[in-house]
Amino acid sequence: MGVFPIEVKRRKDVAQIKKDIARNTKELFAQKGYSATSMEDICTINNRSKGSIYYHFKSKEELFMYLIKLNNEDWMDAWLDKESGYKTAIDKLYGLADHYVDDLANPLNHAINEFVSGQVVSQEMLDEMLSLIRIPYATYESIITKGMEDGELKPDDPQDVMHIIYGLFSGLTTLYYEKDLTDIRRIYHKGMASLLAGIQNVNHEKLM
Q1: How far apart are CA 162 and CA 143, in angstroms?
Q2: What is the mean pLDDT of residues 105-112?
Q3: Which of 64, 110, 135, 169 is in the most buried spot, having the most CB atoms within 10 Å?
Q4: Which of 193, 175, 191 is nearest to 183 (CA)?
Q5: Is residue 202 within 8 Å of 90, Cβ to Cβ?
Q6: Cα–Cα distance list, 108 to 7, 19, 155, 186 (Å)
Q7: Which residues are CB-contacts of 154 (< 8 A; sequence separation ≥ 6)?
């Protein structure tokens, strides 16, 4: 019986070490970019040997994919903290738009874009990237489904609407390189308003 708690503690320690390595390396990737960051840099900032880093991650690529996963989880956690402050589905959709804009200043985004566009993508990596992209899907879909159930949004396929909204938000991220955040936020809201013109149930308020 004495072995089990020790093994559980060891697993927790290993998981925490992986998170620590990834988070320590986040600023490094943000400053230097993915390609310019070497394993020597990663070892130095973590004060660990190459053997120690490779024990937890098979490659720099695997470490960065894990960091993207943590980054996406942080994004979701931050949204869940905000979500309760919005009463209606429409308020939440505008809130999600703002959440996207707020995240554009994330210093890791440039390195993520470099990584995604510059890699020779294997099927395994493609599957992993898709799984990371899909992390917010359930949140979007639940908001949309609730909006339809409450009569705020017209009846439709929630998944289709989710993909359209996700595509709008993701596509507008390129504005970060052209405009300031205030203007980007205005355009996100304008895009959301244009989309809602097609999916919002205009009779909802009359029925209440």
Answers
A1: 9
A2: 87
A3: 64
A4: 175
A5: no
A6: 34, 16, 38, 23
A7: 148, 199, 200, 201
